[in-house]
Structures are given as C-alpha cells and as structure tokens.
C-alpha cells in the first residue's frame, strides 16, 4: 500500500468550490465508508474544515486510487470530477507524508502556525478510527503527524504569528473598527468548536456585551454561561443582529444563515452612525449569503478575503525552522515505511523456507517409516532451527538496508533470487491530467496515454 493525498484548500479553490466538496459531520461516516468500498482504496481519513477538504488514503495503485477518490468526491459534490479537477492537488508516497506533516505543523494554514488544525486533524483521525477506515498505515501516519505538529509548536515560535483563524479574522475586524474591539457588542452564531473559540477570543479582547445564538438552544446557553455572555434563540436573530457591531458566523448549516432578508431587516433597526456591521464568515459552506456583501453598511470577511489579506505569513526564520523539523520527521517516517514495505518479502522468504522444510520432512517420513514420533519431532526441530539460523542474519540485514534511501532494491533482489511472489503496489511516473469523457465521467491520463488497466485492484486486507 502507498499513501495518496487528494484535496483542495483555500490556496487552490474559491469558497464556492470548497462548499461543493465539504463533507458535513452527518455525511462523514458514509463518505468514509464509500471511500474504502472502492477497489483501490484500503484505508481513508477525511479532513473537512473551513479552509480545506482532503482525503488521506492508503491505496493499492496510484491511478486507480486517484480515480476512486475523485469519484467519491464528485458524488459528494454532485458534479463530475472534471468540474473541480483544476482546484485539486495530489501528493503521492513521500510527497503525501510531507504534505500531511506540513499541514499538522501549521505551515499550510491560512494563518501560518495556528494550532487549531491539530485539533481538526485529531478529530478526523478519531472519526476514521471510529468508522474503522484507518488501518495500520494511516494510524501510523496520523499519530506521527500529530506528534510533529506538537513538536513544531513546542520547539519553535511559529505560533506567535497567529493563534487561530478567529484571532486573525478579529485582527482584520479591528482594522475596520478604529483598531479596537474593546466595548464593541458582538454576536456569535454557532456553538460548536469554532463558535466556542470565537466567544473565548472576543472575551479575551474585551469585546462586549457578547451574545450567542445556535440552532440547539441548550448549547448556546452553556457556552454563554461559560463567558458571562447572553444566549438568544435563533428565531431572534434579526433583533440580535441589530444591536451588535461584530458577528462571527461559524455554524454547520448547509445553507446560509445570514441571508439578505435577515441582514436587511437588522440594518433597518440599526443606527448607521455606529459604523459598519462586520460579518465574519468562518464557515464552509458559507453562513453569509454572497449577496450580503453588496449591502451598504456591511463589511463581510470570508475565507476568500482572509486568504488575500493574510498572504504575508510569519517570520521566515520561524517557518524555516519548522520546515527543517518537518523534513527530518518525513525522512524518519519514510525510513520506517521502507522497513515496513520489506516485511512482506521477508515473510514470503520465511514462508518459502517453511514450505521447503515441510516438503522434505514429508519425504523423509515416506522413506523412513521406521522412525518413531519422537525421532521425527527431533529431526523437524533440528531442521527448522538450522533454517531459522541461516535466515536470521540476512533478514535482519535486509530490514536495515531497506530503511535507507533506495533500500527497496534489496527486497526486489530477494524476490528475484528466490522467485518470491509478493503483491506489489504500482507506482507512478507523473500526476495525470483529468479529462472528461463523452459520457461525463472522468478519465485520468499521463502524457496523453490512458492509464486504465495499469493498476490491479486490491484483493482485500485489513482496513
């Protein structure tokens, strides 16, 4: 099995595309099940946040795995793969490990160095574990990625540039409101993880009074009580909007919560002398309808706008230091991976030896029927012991050599010398283009040559 990452993020896709690809918590288990039901996908973890949608998979073949993953994403998006293919990025094998570790370290975040992505990766990993779609390879990848992320924050100052997307969004809001949020009334729509972080950050910056609303009233009340805020029913959204200067929208709704009618109704009750009503849309799919941005007296800061305004990033020295940590950890993981890849060859070699010993012992039993059971057992133990001692040093050495760069050649040599039949994962020379066929399906091509049939489906295995 090889690692494959297929995804889209704020770097490659506008919000409208991320909305199409986003997977809600209600659909997450079903989508994971669909992924591992594909012929080339053995394991899968799915990360769906406001800034990215990524599939981390263990696949039996590159082209087949890519086609399977894109097919499931297309089903989720309700569009053919060719419709969003230009926004996808693909990382395979060592590049996949590097990408996942960079994501965990915060180097690929909109706010470089933010720690929130660690919690999001942990949630994605736990969800896949609960759905039984993460196997040995992804368990190791995700555990090491989380450790790398923690190490990056513990050993560098990468997170001093920005603690979270919420912090960065509120910094941009302060610039629109005379540079200070203290004393500014604020409303948080949504009481999930992002909503809770928003309330905590607003309280820390002395914004207030604070109001929380949520579709589930109980969660809104509990969150509000934790920070001395006030909870209101979602049905009272319009009057609540009319009394604040800042709105943070972070729900899991599939349709906009702050529509033109809702915001227009709030503006009609609001004193325009208070300045603009700043709406921070941190949700994907969007909580603020796109048309709201055109209303007078409203400033909308969404994921697209944040990506443009936050393009500068942290100090180069901090990012470079984390980059060095990631590079070292990637090489360590690849070393483990190369050692793990040779294990089937070693197992096949020992299996071949056991077969030979078994055949010879059966032949001996036919030729020497006069041997007692004890004598036969002693002969069997002696022969097995000799074979195991002969194999011990070569198999230990090949594991050590396989862990080094280029070590896969030693396993290949063993297979050639002993004619071992070990299922192999197909490789890839380049990333294929996505083209649409006449029936609307997607086809994957490398250098204009269709890749159909180059990979064989996995025959099964642990998931």
Strand order of the largest sheet: 7-6-5-8-9-10
The coarse silhouette is elongated
Q: Please bin the fraction of helical residues.
A: 40-55%
Average pLDDT number: 84
Distance between the termini: 11 Å
Instruction: Give the number of helices.
Output: 16
Q: What's the main sheet like? A: 6 strands, parallel
Word description of this protein:
This protein is an alpha/beta fold. It has helices at 15-21, 25-36, 62-77, 81-84, 94-104, 116-130, 136-155, 165-176, 193-204, 217-226, 237-241, 260-269, 303-309, 316-367, 373-402, 408-418; strands spanning 2-9, 41-48, 52-59, 89-92, 186-189, 210-214, 230-233, 246-249, 277-281, 298-301, 433-436, 442-446, 449-450. A 6-stranded parallel β-sheet has the order 7-6-5-8-9-10. The longest helix has 52 residues, at 316-367. It starts with a strand and ends in a 13-residue tail after the last strand.
Give me the secondary-structure topology.
Blueprint: E1 2-9, H1 15-21, H2 25-36, E2 41-48, E3 52-59, H3 62-77, H4 81-84, E4 89-92, H5 94-104, H6 116-130, H7 136-155, H8 165-176, E5 186-189, H9 193-204, E6 210-214, H10 217-226, E7 230-233, H11 237-241, E8 246-249, H12 260-269, E9 277-281, E10 298-301, H13 303-309, H14 316-367, H15 373-402, H16 408-418, E11 433-436, E12 442-446, E13 449-450
Parallel strand pairs: 5-6, 5-8, 6-7, 8-9, 9-10
Antiparallel strand pairs: 1-3, 1-4, 2-3, 11-12, 12-13
